[in-house]
Design goal:
This protein has 298 residues and is α+β, with helices and mostly antiparallel strands. The protein has two domains: 2-238, Ribonuclease Z/Hydroxyacylglutathione hydrolase-like (Metallo-beta-lactamase, Chain A), CATH 3.60.15.10; 243-296, no CATH class. It is built from ten helices and 16 strands. Strand 5, helix 1 and strand 6 (62-64) form a beta-alpha-beta unit. Helix 6 packs antiparallel against helix 8 and helix 8 (233-254) packs across helix 10.
Length: 298
């Protein structure tokens, strides 16, 4: 089944915020964990949704980040300021990136571009992305115990070099970030591949995740999958990545291998004319630029 990622999704999994930028909360018997922190402007909404779904005595113990993009770690600094005991976990690369003023400026500028799209969520609170260091440096094979639920860390580069996936074997639930791609279309009927840092790494990571037993898959944007849809997603993701490589190669050929012309042609044909990609244009173009360069180098 394809679900919209809002509210209670299973007896152990909730999606805070709005479907385009869900923050998944997994509740164990002893501790709770949030995966990803969307755009910075959603920080107050994530906090209020957490306390609306859980008792006021509940605490959020962990926040794990799938990767370093501004729309996945955006609200992390805000939440860390609100919850000083919150343990933030991320790839070691996230720590070094957040220490760079140029990176923070870039992230905050891109975040500001979203304010007109999501103006109903903009408040007077300080939601700036600042250098809040991760408390936990995550790597392959690490495990975090939530009480009868175990979060297993899997390194899955491809979307970014620092991409991580999180698997909970007791409930067969996987949160793969964007390395495996996202669902697109009004009903999630299509799969859009999101290899940005490396096509080759992306393929290897998807193949790695295909071995997992799945009942639930939390996609990074808009949708979640259960049952047979979750079980079959990685095969679809692999095909989508291969097909997207061929599509980029087609446009590169049309543009006589000129990368800038290829990008402009794809923005026009794939983004503007088809209209089934619900992503802010500048963010889409930034990712597309990296994808075209990745394929051009093969």
């Amino acid at each position: 089944m394809i679900l919209t990622s809002e509210g209670q999704l299973t007896d152990k999994i909730y999606a805070l915020g709005i479907a385009p930028y869900p923050a998944y909360v997994i509740s164990g018997d002893k501790k709770s964990m949030m995966i990803d922190a969307g755009l910075n402007i959603f920080g107050p909404r994530y906090m209020s949704d957490f306390y609306n779904n859980f008792s006021t005595e509940s605490t959020l113990d962990y926040l794990l980040l799938t990767h370093s993009h501004f729309d996945h770690l955006g609200a992390m600094p805000y939440m860390k300021r609100q919850l000083p005991d919150l343990q933030v976990g991320a790839h070691e690369r996230v720590k070094s990136l957040l220490a760079k003023e140029s990176v923070l400026t870039f992230m905050n500028n891109f975040s500001d571009m979203q304010k007109m799209i999501f103006k109903d969520f903009v408040t007077d609170e300080d939601v700036a992305i600042t250098n809040e260091e991760p408390d936990l440096i995550l790597s392959e094979g690490m495990e975090i115990d939530l009480g009868n639920l175990t979060c297993q860390v899997i390194e899955t580069p491809g979307h970014t070099a620092d991409s991580l996936s999180f698997y909970f074997p007791e409930i067969k639930a996987l949160f793969p970030g964007e390395t495996s791609g996202i669902l697109i279309g009004l009903k999630g009927e299509g799969v859009k591949s999101e290899f940005v840092s490396s096509y080759t790494d992306c393929i290897k990571s998807i193949e790695k995740l295909m071995d997992l037993d799945l009942d639930f898959l939390g996609i990074s944007h808009v949708f979640s999958l259960t049952g047979e849809d979750a079980q079959g997603f990685m095969a679809r993701a692999l095909t989508a990545a291969e097909d997207y490589r061929k599509l980029i190669e087609y446009y590169l050929n049309e543009a006589h291998s000129n990368i800038e012309e290829t990008i402009e042609l794809m923005v026009k044909k794939e983004y503007e004319e088809k209209g089934n990609i619900f992503q802010e244009k500048n963010a889409y173009k930034a990712n597309l630029t990296a994808q075209v360069k990745s394929i051009a180098q093969l």
